[in-house]
Amino acid sequence: MIADDSMVVRGLFARWLGESGRFHVVGVAGDGESAIEHAGRHHPDIMVLDLDMPILDGVEALPRIIKQSPRTAVLLTTTLTERNAQLALQCISKGAVDVLPKPDNRSGLTLSLDFRSELLGKLSSITQSRFREGDLAADGAQSAPLPSGVADLRPLVSVMPRYLVIGASTGGPRAVARVLGDLGEALANLTTLIVQHMPPLFTASFADQIATQLGVPAREPHDGERLARGMIYVAPGGRHLGIERKLGHIAASISDEPPVHFCRPAVDILFADAARHLGPAALGLIMTGMGSDGTDGATTLRRAGAAVIAQDEQSSTIWGMPGSVVRAGQASAVLPLAGIGPAIRTLVGGSRPA
């Protein structure tokens, strides 16, 4: 299902999807009201939903679409502005799966092979996650549930971690926010660094959203900034976030080096630097997302004596990134989303959030 106020965009998306041979377009809509009506009539597997539409925009239409068709995965599309980034993150927190920024103009949209490839890639990953069959083997992974139902990670670490390094992509904003919220006061005992695959503007809005929701300091770091305990740092969109030792201190390293596995920021960069400079003082967490970014970094972290937690398949929107780490045998533990925060909290200390 395609919902966009531009007839040109609707036609373009429909043609791309048809030519791919992987999708069947059941309907198109030019406004939010029509999108809701189509959702109730067709119950599509996926809806591509534009944020900016007449009568009822995507923000207002989303909850009603989900109510009409709960199993429909909603992929947002929008032009890249600070306002739209904030609105898209609100939608993701309310159930949208992911967001894809559009080129600034129609000619850019028509001519952008990268945008077409990214759109089809995201839709394919969403489709695979919705129709996967069976469970992938979790070789090399351990999960030790206590009677309380909280996994005991203490046997997996040699020292108490003081740095939490997180990698996530599709479905990540909501999942990461859940883990950070579940950590509660334990965040004060950690320096937290996050690579969330997002374009510029979106990552700054994501950091602001975390700070507002949790009441903790969260922002994009600047290059060379000394990393402080109790802070949450989010990699700037389109730039790598790494770690370096500078004048005896641990500092952020922001760079424009080439993408790694087509990703910038890349989880592999952050994890590799954490292994080099932090060793077992780091705790890796790889969460929902498409692709395999983070697998090489997780391997490096494990070799340096650090533990790596992978989100389980059932609770992941897309089990690409964590699944890749699990299949590589580099997950110290595989945990459901609801169990990750409590497990880390028992490891690093901190009261249960109210």
UniProtKB/TrEMBL annotation:
Pfam families named among the record's database cross-references: CheB_methylest, Response_reg
PTM note: Phosphorylated by CheA. Phosphorylation of the N-terminal regulatory domain activates the methylesterase activity.
Subcellular location: Cytoplasm
The protein's Enzyme Commission number: 3.1.1.61, 3.5.1.44
Protein keywords: Chemotaxis, Cytoplasm, Hydrolase, Methyltransferase, Phosphoprotein, Transferase
First-tier enzyme category under EC: hydrolase
Cytoplasm among keywords: yes
Domain Response regulatory: 1-117
Reactions the enzyme catalyzes: [protein]-L-glutamate 5-O-methyl ester + H2O = L-glutamyl-[protein] + methanol + H(+); L-glutaminyl-[protein] + H2O = L-glutamyl-[protein] + NH4(+)
Any one biological process term the GO annotation gives: methylation
Residues with the 4-aspartylphosphate modification: 50
InterPro entries associated with the record: CheB-like, CheB_C, CheY-like_superfamily, Sig_transdc_resp-reg_Me-estase, Sig_transdc_resp-reg_receiver
Keyword Hydrolase found: yes
Active site (record annotation): 169, 197, 293
UniProt-recorded Gene Ontology molecular function terms: methyltransferase activity; protein-glutamate methylesterase activity
Highest taxon above the source species: Bacteria
Domain named CheB-type methylesterase: residues: 155-351
Family, per entry: Belongs to the CheB family.
Domain notes: Contains a C-terminal catalytic domain, and an N-terminal region which modulates catalytic activity.
PANTHER family xrefs: PROTEIN-GLUTAMATE METHYLESTERASE/PROTEIN-GLUTAMINE GLUTAMINASE (PTHR42872), PROTEIN-GLUTAMATE METHYLESTERASE_PROTEIN-GLUTAMINE GLUTAMINASE 1 (PTHR42872:SF3)
Matches recorded under HAMAP family: CheB_chemtxs
Function: Involved in chemotaxis. Part of a chemotaxis signal transduction system that modulates chemotaxis in response to various stimuli. Catalyzes the demethylation of specific methylglutamate residues introduced into the chemoreceptors (methyl-accepting chemotaxis proteins or MCP) by CheR. Also mediates the irreversible deamidation of specific glutamine residues to glutamic acid.
Listed NCBIfam families: PRK00742.1 (NF001965)
Protein's recorded name: Protein-glutamate methylesterase/protein-glutamine glutaminase
Gene name tied to this protein: cheB
